[in-house]
Design brief:
- The chain is mainly β and about 850 residues long.
- It contains seven helices and 42 strands.
- About 5% of the residues lie in helices and about 35% in strands.
- Strands 1, 4, 5, 7, 8 and 10 form a six-stranded antiparallel beta sheet that branches. A six-stranded antiparallel beta sheet has the order 29-26-31-24-23-42, with no helix packed on it. Strands 32, 33, 34, 36, 39 and 41 form a six-stranded antiparallel beta sheet that branches.
- A hairpin with a 6-residue loop joins strand 37 and strand 38 (about 775-780).
- Helix 5 crosses helix 7.
- The model is unreliable at about 1-45, about 65-185 and about 835-850 (pLDDT under 50).
């Protein structure tokens, strides 16, 4: 089994590592460490530099001065030479000869450091290190021995190129710097390379264990000792991100070729100490033949948390999941100095003619005279560049794509660039959202000088997006474009004259007032009203008990627009998602009874972007509109009465305006603490399922004069309910939440319930603690309550593992349907508490009264 695993996951004996971040072998790509040689005039045999080195004689430049002597080979090398004491380290960097296990010679041919024979089959991929890395490794070894109190001999501290004990003067690195490197060797909290241990990451006992490879380098779980669908869960120690951090995960998923439709899946959760559920941050299930890298932004927070990594095995006897490295560092994931081999997750978009390459270090593939990097100001640092010498067809672009931002961010993007010539090249920076929409945020003007130039770009990513650095050549004199040291600051580049967009200021539920909305003075307009719980008219959408806006066109004396409701001013050139809820009463013809316009303030132009077509009467319906305008705009809601004989009521509530598209294709699933029942029953379970159980349904219930007309989430979605016609009086149905983790502090449970019908029974909510034989009652409602969906907020504490149980009991008649929707668990106390003493019998004198 170990041999098979080693074939699927390559050992990381040497440095740099090979991270293949693109895809299948036939798709040519940029390799992070060995840098695939693309865009050259060589025959299209796409091999890495490592493979190329292995296939030819490669002289050790440090021994090249020895002339007139034959190179060491299998015939001239003896064990005595190998075992002699040279005074240098026995193994690793700085050793004169490689050392191997005693049985290694029988399995593979010996290979001196001075040459690679063509017939030599290496046990792992290897690339000789550049000079800087070699010196740093030597200095690190010395510094580690110094820290451990060992005696540091002169021969151990010697440079490989100078056996006299002097440091290599060309390295520009002293012992003091090496000691600093040794101090920084300890990985940051939340990081692990899985060389000898799992670094504080522990397998959760209830699930499969993650196996540490015998030779180190990675951990894995596969179907050789587990079945399809089984999970392996890895949990970190307590972490804290008081500053913005970036979590990078290097992983590989392999799947059997006979069942690609059932792949393995890797999920990453964040577990906060005060929450009873885990938040899904990232998920992947694409199989690959090599290591992939994921970059995840973690917003700064004072809360302690844990990282939970879950591997779910797919179908097939060769399915496996492996983790190569986890690294959590302070900073943003779009920042990069290109010194690390994974290039911070940046990806070159392959183009047959023009591509981004890694420059600096020991890479000398370009025919152009390339610059020193900006980070270290030396030839040993690295940067990215595009060279026109490789271009075969012009007017094509090279794209370097950043990792996707995983959290809202806004501020100033910095980077350094350098150009040679520059007359025939165009260097631009774009953003691209999940829907593939590009927006240019910067284009190079006059570079000013031939040295590194600093660019400052206003950057806003309120929703997931990528940053794309794009270079196009329009002629043969394009020269090269180099890029280095990308960084980000949440502080704007310049003093902003206009206020930034605020989703809070642009939204309103009308519970206290009109917020930042207003209306013109013409006509009766929109009125803020409240409806008491009753059996004839629905209350507001927010809670069923609060305020909403209503335009009563029955009171108008002439047809036409009777009211305009204006929203706050929105900055231009941003994409917005407008959501709101509306309900229509009366009206013989419903089309155009409510319309939404965009009002451009500078040009006094109104553009209609939405209107009602058909809608169920008396049901709160959700509308979603995505729009973008170049100029500052306002959203305007208008109600319309077409004729004196066809007027009615138009209700409006819960208006929200957010940045981004309403229909992003890469939205994460609903958090485990929330359930709208739109996709399934979430993690709720039932002890038995039959006609008298809870059922998931959309639309009206089968029995008249009971049950909701639509769900609370959108008006046309799903909810859970009991069908009283399938039950007998007093029969119960229980819906159980998944087990919730016990934490200190208060919990807040929020949900909406619907109890309409003359024979309605009871709805109970219980808390069931692990180990207790009986449940404790948290909340209860009896009898008919309202034709509206009503909101409940329940606050409770529980430090033990527990479950929440929704129990519905059938009433005296078939008009006893009970429904629930939009369940949500939150940490902390409820912002506002439901009055638990309120008991509505449904027979109040003021059932249909509207408060203005």
């Amino acid at each position: 089994m170990e041999a098979q695993i080693n074939l699927r996951h390559r050992d990381r004996e040497t440095y740099p590592k090979d991270y293949d971040i693109e895809g299948p072998e036939e798709v040519k790509k940029l390799c992070n460490s060995t840098y695939w040689r693309l865009g050259t005039n060589e025959p299209p045999i796409w091999i890495s530099e490592t493979h190329e080195k292995m296939a030819q004689v490669c002289l050790n430049t440090e021994l090249a001065e020895i002339k007139g002597k034959a190179l060491l080979n299998e015939e001239t090398m003896s064990s005595g030479i190998i075992e002699r004491d040279t005074g240098l380290p026995a193994t690793g960097f700085g050793a004169l000869f490689p050392r191997h296990p005693s049985d290694w010679y029988e399995r593979f041919k010996m290979c001196a450091l001075t040459t690679y024979a063509e017939e030599y089959a290496p046990p792992y991929e290897y690339q000789p290190l550049d000079a800087l890395t070699t010196v740093l490794r030597m200095e690190w070894r010395c510094a580690r021995q110094k820290q451990q109190g060992d005696h540091l001999s002169e021969t151990t501290a010697a440079s490989p190129a100078n056996s006299s004990g002097d440091w290599d003067q060309g390295s520009h690195v002293g012992l003091e710097h090496a000691l600093q490197l040794a101090g920084a060797l300890d990985l940051p909290a939340g990081s692990c390379t899985f060389e000898e241990s799992t670094c504080g990451f522990d397998s959760v006992f209830e699930f499969l264990p993650w196996i540490l490879n015998e030779e180190g380098h990675y951990i894995y779980v596969d179907t050789s000792f587990a079945k399809q669908g089984e999970k392996a869960v890895l949990l970190s120690s307590d972490l804290q991100a008081e500053e913005w951090s970036c979590l990078r995960l290097v992983y590989q998923i392999t799947t059997s070729s006979v069942s690609p439709s059932e792949p393995s899946q890797l999920n990453l959760y964040v577990r906060f100490d005060d929450e009873s559920f885990d938040r899904l941050l990232w998920s992947a299930k694409e199989p690959s033949d090599s290591w992939l890298i994921a970059s995840l932004d973690l917003q700064n927070s004072s809360k302690k948390f844990k990282i939970l990594i879950e591997g779910v095995l797919g179908h097939g006897n060769t399915a496996s999941i492996a983790l190569f490295e986890i690294k959590m560092t302070t900073g943003y994931c779009i920042e990069c100095d290109f010194e690390e081999n994974h290039l911070c997750g940046f990806v070159n978009l392959w183009n047959p003619n023009v591509n981004w390459f890694v420059g600096g270090g020991n890479m000398r593939n370009s025919h152009s005279i390339l610059p020193q990097d900006h980070t270290f100001r030396s030839e040993l640092g690295h940067y990215m560049y595009v060279d026109s010498v490789y271009v075969k067809h012009y007017q094509e672009v090279a794209q370097l794509i950043s990792p996707v931002t995983m959290a809202p961010m806004s501020g100033c993007l910095f980077f350094y660039y350098q150009l040679q010539q520059g007359n025939d090249n165009i260097f631009s920076v774009y953003t691209r959202d999940a829907a593939g929409l590009y927006e240019e945020i910067w284009q190079m003007g006059n570079p000013g000088n031939t040295d590194w130039n600093l660019a400052e770009v206003e950057f806003s990513a309120p929703y997931p997006m990528e940053v794309i650095f794009e270079v196009a050549f329009n002629g043969p004199r394009g020269g090269y474009v180099a890029l280095d040291d990308i960084s980000f600051s949440p502080v704007p580049c310049h003093n902003q004259t206009e206020r930034p967009f605020s989703a809070v200021e642009a939204s309103c539920n009308f519970e206290k007032d009109l917020c930042n909305f207003y209306q013109d003075k013409e006509g009766p307009g929109w009125t803020r009203v409240k409806v008491r719980p009753n059996m004839y008219r629905a209350g507001d959408h927010t809670s069923g008990l609060g305020y909403f806006l209503m335009a009563n066109t029955k009171f108008t004396s002439q047809p036409g627009y009777i009211g305009r409701l204006y929203g706050p001013s929105l900055p231009g050139n941003l994409q917005y998602c407008l959501r709101f809820y509306y309900a229509i009463y009366g009206f013989l013809k419903m089309s155009d009874t409510l319309a939404v316009y965009i009002f451009e303030e500078n040009h006094m132009v109104q553009d209609k972007i939405w209107s009602v077509l058909e809608s169920p009467r008396g049901v709160w319906m959700q509308a979603e509109i995505t729009f973008k305008k170049p100029m500052p705009t306002k959203v305007v809601f208008m109600s319309l009465c077409k004729s004196f004989w066809d007027c009615g009521l138009v209700a409006l509530d819960d208006i929200t305006i957010e940045l981004g598209s309403c229909w992003s294709p890469e939205k994460l699933p609903t958090p485990p603490g929330e359930c709208t029942f739109e996709q399934d029953e979430c993690a709720f379970t039932q002890e038995r399922r039959n006609r008298s159980s809870w059922h998931r349904r959309r639309g009206e219930t089968p029995t008249s004069y009971t049950g909701p007309k639509g769900d609370h989430t959108t008006g046309v979605g799903y909810y859970m309910y009991i069908e009283a016609s399938h039950m007998v009086y007093g029969q119960k149905a229980q819906l159980l939440s998944r087990p919730l983790r016990g934490v200190t502090g208060k919990h807040c449970l929020t949900f909406f319930y619907h109890m309409y019908g003359a024979g309605t029974g009871l709805l109970n909510v219980y808390l069931k603690k692990e180990g207790d034989s009986e449940e404790s009652l948290l909340w209860r409602r009896r009898g008919e309550q309202s034709i509206s969906w009503l909101r409940v907020l329940i606050e409770y504490t529980c430090e033990r593992r527990h479950q929440i149980i929704f129990e519905a009991i059938r009433g005296v008649s078939i008009r006893s349907d009970i429904a629930i929707d939009d369940v949500k668990f939150q940490a902390g106390s409820c912002a506002e508490m439901e009055d638990i003493t309120q008991q509505s019998s449904g027979y109040s004198e003021d059932l249909n009264e509207i408060e203005y």
